[in-house]
Write a structure and sequence with these properties.
single chain, alpha+beta, two-stranded antiparallel ribbon, 4 helices
């Protein structure tokens, strides 16, 4: 899959997980600087919204859209991962008055495990992953053009079906 930013090709590292297989485990930091892994969310469906930079327009739209619809997601974990620092994430959520589970992947380890790391820019490719309660990947959408938005309705629909 080719990735672009405003039409310019980007090099992406890692191998994307396959739907129907176990999702790769990962370890990222929450905004209290604690390690969080996929195993911490077993037992519930998890929707992972990945944004390149929370401080950009499309990333903000994506995060706000998923959080706006979070009330429809009973029994589903909604998390957002970006390469922003915890300070940047805290500042953004406070400014936007959004209570969101934000995790940072500043070392791109999550991105490499999921095949969406863009080392040249130090960001992750915009994407959405839905993982069932047993840890199996049931849905993914990896956006090839960085400035495009994901299909919010389809991601939420798949998360609800996975319950």
């Amino acid at each position: 899959m080719e990735f672009t930013k405003k039409g310019e090709p980007l090099k992406v590292e890692g191998t994307q997980p396959v739907i129907g297989e176990m999702a790769p485990d990962f370890s990222v930091k929450n905004n209290e600087n604690e390690n969080v892994s996929l195993k911490d969310y077993r037992g519930n469906v998890t929707l992972i919204s990945v944004v390149p930079d929370i401080e950009t327009r499309v990333c903000a739209l994506q995060t706000k859209s998923f959080n706006k619809n979070a009330n429809e997601l009973d029994g589903i974990n909604l998390i957002t991962i970006s390469t922003n620092t915890k300070e940047e994430q805290k500042k953004w959520t406070a400014a936007e008055n959004i209570d969101a589970k934000m995790f940072n992947d500043t070392d791109l380890s999550f991105g490499k495990a999921y095949g969406i790391a863009i080392p040249d820019l130090g960001v992750l490719a915009r994407s959405v992953f839905v993982i069932d309660a047993n840890g199996k990947l049931v849905y993914k959408e990896v956006i090839s053009e960085m400035v495009d938005e994901p299909n919010y309705d389809k991601a939420i629909e798949n998360a609800k079906k996975a319950r």
